[in-house]
Amino acid sequence: MLAAARTVVAFGIILQVAGFGKLLVIADYFGAGPLLDAYYLGLVIPTFLNGVSAGIFQSAFVPAYVKARARGDDATARALASVAFSWTAVAFGAVAALLTALRSVALPVLSQSTSPDTRAALQYAFALLVWTTPLNAVADAGALLLNAEGRFAAAAAAPLLNVLVGVIVLVAWRGNAIDALVWSLLAGLAAQALVVLIAVRDAGIRLRPQFTLPATLPRMLRTIALPVLLSVVLGNLIPAFVQMVSVRAGTGAISAMGYASRLHNSLVQAVVLSVSVVLLPHFARLIAEGRNAELRATLERVFAATLLFAVAALVLVAASGPLLIEVLLEHGHFTAADTQLVARIWLALTAGLLGATWGIFLVRLFQAQQHIWVIFSFGCVSVLANVAFAFAFLPLWGVVGVALANSLAYALIMWLCHRRADRTLGRVLGVSAHGFVARTVLANLAAYSAAMWWENLLERSSPLAVLTGQFLIVAAANMLVARTPPLSVPVTALLRR
Fold this sequence. Notes:
Blueprint: H1 2-30, H2 34-42, H3 44-70, H4 74-101, H5 103-110, H6 116-129, H7 132-148, H8 152-172, H9 178-202, H10 217-246, H11 253-288, H12 292-329, H13 336-350, H14 353-368, H15 372-397, H16 399-425, H17 431-458, H18 463-482, H19 491-496
Helix pairs in contact: 1-8, 1-11, 2-6, 2-11, 3-4, 3-7, 3-10, 4-7, 6-9, 7-8, 7-9, 8-9, 10-15, 11-12, 11-13, 11-14, 12-13, 12-14, 12-17, 12-18, 13-16, 14-16, 15-16, 17-18
């Protein structure tokens, strides 16, 4: 399990770096304007459908496939794989065709409050972008099948080819406006799906068109897949809603949200990829063996590590975010005004990092406890909170208010999850955790002051020196806090790892 986690994390980090390289190219060519707004709006529905597709595959196919393989029932496993791929390709291909036919209905909804240039670009892009749905669904299905077979490297490497092909097409077509964005994405996804399918074939898995459904489907849907599916739908509604409501803040707002979300999600995915993969089976094992005291101690240490990471990230984004964005993105069509707006949105999103990560880890606990309908209820609250907060904050702070609303919703869900964990396990956080919170806050306030002093001292004469110094200041402060209970990790151990 640990070897697989290391493989996934390593490729995940490389993918984040490669994806950020593509983001730099997009920023240089398009900045934050109507064309990029149209591109992100055109992806709202496909992104939602792709998330639902992956959630269905994870909840309905992967456990059944792994169980059949563990029994040595290869015939059933192969039949499951063929059925899953057949339905994925046909169903999402049909959805893409339906969306293309009904674009006259979908486009007015997506293009509300947009400029004429954005509407014109969206009119063209939407009919092509919807076909990313079946490509993405097949690529994700193949990757999950490879993971189920223990071939993590092949599944994790395919998205890298997606980015590489996408950048090549983007650079080659840079003078073709929205075409460059659309076709670079389609070409990248096609390459990714092809590589995944080749890897599936090389693994000795022969897929055949098959559309029969198992007789146990009604019971499976009622007991497991239905609540998981509903939770997946709700979870994917939130990013779609954030994109849609950002349009109301004016031209360029959804593009700025896209840049900031890309920066923010790199932090979230770094934590989730490295920790969440290990936590779920560990929680499940402790629960199965009735080791509740050890489970609470584990949760307390995970909270301490999460708090340290989230507060340190908030300080770094507050102190270094504008300069980092200026150095990396402020070229070509990306202006100084874009830098300031993206920096504010990024900071607003980072304010919700603790709620997002700790909430996710507690959801893993509920998954291990098989409290599926509890997770669904929290998903309902999350959607309602995002909608209420976004429409309350949008008139006050524009697109930054939408980002703050998302962070506040994460904080609310984290609080609800925490209360639920306390009721089922007993008090999760003890006295040492409360002291750790105080030390973390004080240390990072001091680190922020020192980081700003360092920037003023150098007067931005060397941006690299400013950014490096600020990072080292914040890292040093948090390493000292990490040595204290309940985390109690020595500095030498942090440096070794």
